[in-house]
Amino acid sequence: MSAGGGTIELSRCEACFARFLPTDGPCPRCGATRIVPYAAPGVGRVVASTELHVPPPGVRSPHRLAIVEVADAVRLLASIDGPLPIRGDLVGVRKDGDVYRARAEPTPEV
Amino acid sequence: MTTHVASVGVAGFGKRTEGLVDLAVEAAGPALEGVGRKPIDLLVVGTMLAHGLRGPEPLLPRLAGRLGLESASGFRVEATSATGAMAFHVAVTSLETGRYSRALVVAAEKMTDRPTAEITGELTAAIHPSEVAAGATMPGLAALVTQRYLERHGLGPEVFDRVSVHARKMSADNPKAHFQKEVTGEEVATSRPVALPLRRLHCSAISDGAAAVVLERGSGPATVLGFGQGFESLRLVDRADLTGFAATRIAARTAYEMAKTTRKELEVVEVHDAFAPLGIVHLEDIGVCGPGEGSSWFANDWVGRDGRLPVNPGGGLLGRGHPVGASGLAGIAEVALQLRGEAGARAIARLPKVGLAQSMSGLGSHSFVTILGRMEA
What we know:
Chain A is mainly β. Chain A has no helices and 8 strands. Helix content of chain A is 0%, strand content 48%. In chain A, the strands form 2 sheets. Chain A has a 5-stranded mixed β-barrel. Chain A is globular, with a radius of gyration of 15 Å. The mean pLDDT of chain A is 91. By secondary structure, chain B is an alpha/beta fold. Chain B has one domain (3-114, 206-373): Thiolase/Chalcone synthase (Peroxisomal Thiolase, Chain A, domain 1), CATH 3.40.47. Chain B is 36% helix and 19% strand. Chain B is built from 13 helices and 13 strands. In chain B, strand 7 (193-195) and strand 8 form a beta hairpin. Chain A binds chain B through residues 20-21, 28, 47-57, 59, 63, 65-67, 75-79, 87, 98-100, and chain B through 117-118, 120-121, 124, 130-137, 139-140, 143-145, 147-148, 151, 192-198, 236-238, 242.
């Protein structure tokens, strides 16, 4: 589990059972409106990552970004705290206001 | 009903002191001269930011006034980086209705007099708000796609250096391009990092510029044979495939079907190389080659003016500069110039019969493909 063992909220469509990030609108797959929130572990694996040396205005350089796959193959774009993880790395994920933040998980003890 | 590009005009791209309307007039002038100043009954303009020197610029009415088009119908369109292509498609579609007989299409952008941070902020209009919140920039998202592409195909980042080298080689022969100087692979590979593995010379530059064409009903050397569009999820993380752009594949399929042609007929291509890896990915998405094969086209220089399929002979976005709203039309204009035998020193080795221009909005959320070809009246 992530440091602190947190969770993140995901959404499930009651009509087509698609799983996706919480949204204000209807199901992005089938358009149904019965959406049920559920808690997923705050942990995922990096799909791709990059280090921005020309970050957006007001963001410190270098700014690190990663596409992270969490439970049920749901993907999100996370701002990375700490060193840059690479594809396949395990990261802890939490939501901070509107932003997902991820941090490399310590290597599990064998 | 067919339509064709009867004339082309391009304003010099680069860091210009002129304002948006002046750039648009500079491009429109030669296009209007090219048809002997025959009457225009449709004006379609494209600009994304509509920046004047002192604030927002109402480009459409000001341009209509400057060009004396008081009795024409006018439309302004916007599709971020594909604005110029959208303007062209709107004009073609309008002519096809039979309502109009001759259209002037002008796409223009003025960017270099604003601070880079301000422009960067405005360009996030093409990114999903949740990804903007995470601190995404367009180069950042392009870098993520690039990482996935490299891993899927077992390639190293050096394959993209050649795209930048090619672009600058082409633009060095284009007096209207932003960049007139060639670069070496070494210079590309050691340029300052932007969003790793993308470096400065892998990224198109903020620029000023404008392009124009006159479209007429009927056929000619640059007849509109087919055109198509495609959409894909604005939010990058929702896409099933991050190693190409479904929107471009849909747009290309629609355009090929309409044109009753295939990629085998293509003799010149302009693709939206806003970032060097995209030059490779787009070749794959328009079907010129299979997934993972695009880099070999640049490595073997099959994309040069005397190559198997000349790609971006005007320099593309990397060489010509990327005034966002103008680039989509500049690519179509380049294909038209090549087909019409009006490309001067940068003419490809063999006068082409069929060419394709591809342009996209954001990081592939909306894509446009246009096929032009020789069809004698």
